Amino acid sequence: xxxxxxxxxxxxxxxxxxxxxxxxxxxxxxxxxxxxxxxxxxxxxxxxxxxxxxxxxxxxxxxxxxxxxxxxxxxxxxxxxxxxxxxxxxxxxxxxxxxxxxxxxxxxxxxxxxxxxxxxxxxxxxxxxxxxxxxxxxxxxxxxxxxxxxxxxxxxxxxxxxxxxxxxxxxxxxxxxxxxxxxxxxxxxxxxxxxxxxxxxxxxxxxxxxxxxxxxxxxxxxxxxxxxxxxxxxxxxxxxxxxxxxxxxxxxxxxxxxxxxxxxxxxxxxxxxxxxxxxxxxxxxxxxxxxxxxxxxxxxxxxxxxxx
Amino acid sequence: xxxxxxxxxxxxxxxxxxxxxxxxxxxxxxxxxxxxxxxxxxxxxxxxxxxxxxxxxxxxxxxxxxxxxxxxxxxxxxxxxxxxxxxxxxxxxxxxxxxxxxxxxxxxxxxxxxxxxxxxxxxxxxxxxxxxxxxxxxxxxxxxxxxxxxxxxxxxxxxxxxxxxxxxxxxxxxxxxxxxxxxxxxxxxxxxxxxxxxxxxxxxxxxxxxxxxxxxxxxxxxxxxxxxxxxxxxxxxxxxxxxxxxxxxxxxxxxxxxx
Lengths: 308, 259
Known about the structure:
By secondary structure, chain A is mostly helical. Chain A has a domain at 23-232. In chain A, 74% of the residues lie in helices and 1% in strands. Chain A has helices spanning 2-17, 25-48, 56-71, 77-99, 104-124, 151-173, 176-186, 188-193, 198-224, 234-247, 254-273, 276-291, 295-304, and strands at residues 141-142, 146-147. In chain A, 49% of the residues are buried. The mean pLDDT of chain A is 91. Chain B is of the alpha/beta class. Chain B has two domains: 2-93 and 170-248, Rossmann fold, CATH 3.40.50.300; 95-151, no CATH class. Chain B is 33% helix and 24% strand. Chain B has nine helices and ten strands. Chain B has helices at 47-54, 77-83, 100-112, 129-138, 154-166, 184-197, 210-216, 234-238, 241-248, and strands at residues 7-18, 21-32, 36-40, 62-67, 70-71, 85-87, 172-176, 202-206, 219-224, 227-232. Chain B has a six-stranded mixed sheet, sandwiched between helices. In chain B, strands 2-1-4-5 form a four-stranded antiparallel sheet, covered by helices on one side. The two termini of chain B are 25 Å apart. The model of chain B has no long low-confidence stretch (mean pLDDT 86). Chain A binds chain B through residues 171-172, 174-180, 182-183, 186-187, 189-198, 200-201, 204, 208, and chain B through 55, 57, 76-78, 81-82, 86-89, 93-98, 102, 105-107, 109-110, 114-122, 124-125, 164, 168.
């Protein structure tokens, strides 16, 4: 327990000090947004064993909604974020209600198909800017009190949001609801025979995951000031699966670490090797699957014999 | 006096046909309140299919299932559990990466109604620990409360499954081969446990072990090729020539375990 407290304290200090360590703040914010996205995805894959192939739909739909609300509708930052999360929540409810009735590959195919539907809506709808996406999204301020225009203020805002989501996910996993999810994951027929209507629990997990993925997307839209079709694309859905598995699904820190690895590689290697970066990330994934299936954090936990 | 008791579970002409094969072929069965009713039969007689029909894991092709006089033929599996019918599985059904205490607590939790609370700490469940320990004690597992279910011996897993089932305070327990895969001593132990917990409940069990059936069952129904070929007390059923033939292939031998 003590070692874990120390680890989290060190990570918190690192997070707070990051802007002074010479890292480009916008890049670190982008990392945090994707880390949040991967943690939200992990709530589904890692803790309920449901593999969604279309999580970019919630990430992107929320990003578009927030972008549109604060630019075209003149909403405030917080209201815009909440609006985005509300849309991803409803989208998660609609898609989840259909998908949780099926298992395994069928579940994955339904989430994929419906996410593609969302992608094409975003391509065609008048308010998304089509191929151009939404540009020039203002960061605004927190309820008119704290101006988020500067990178330092925005950074701490994003960091606080990430910390809150991280704590929330830990709480969900360790809640009475989390206990039921664990039981369903371990032995679904038995959970049914104990009287649990398992579809409802899976749906709630799905909606929570979609909402938090949406929050990550909306924050990213504010950080970078634009939303593009790639935010709702199949490639982004694939990236988040990769991040989660690489870092370690079913661990708290794994998805965040996976996001940092994947985004850093994409960012720095694409200047050097261009499109080959996808091949290299693919190769890393193959090595991961063949040699350390639990992912980085999963493997460390196994070696240490305890959870972090 | 068992015959005078009211029926708690009844099936009427229950049929389950798979493609080109009738697994359950018009079974009418009556389980009376307070008895231990054993369902026996050779391999492939349709016992497990029949069980899955009762617990709604399969939908019957035709026929009706009545629980305390109410037609439950078209209900969902989780609804059945809420009515007080709880099943066990042929393969031991525990939650392996939960501790023994947590296994029982998961069952208690639903009744308390906190199962959708994702914002509360799991510590809020500690109010259930007293009752959970009590249930573990009922199957003599109180010393293993904080052991992961996966690390328990097979016999203890069976006992844990029973404790979890009891947590729902079922009126009717459906046990699918509760002694399968158990060692000699464990068989007797689990049989005694079943008898112990059946004191205020009704039990319908599929069982292969004739010693267990002979020692604890009040009524026995024999299933063969999807049909009930005999029903009654052990002594009556064991002398039934049709039953002996079904088991031994000849009517001249005595049923194993009846001596």
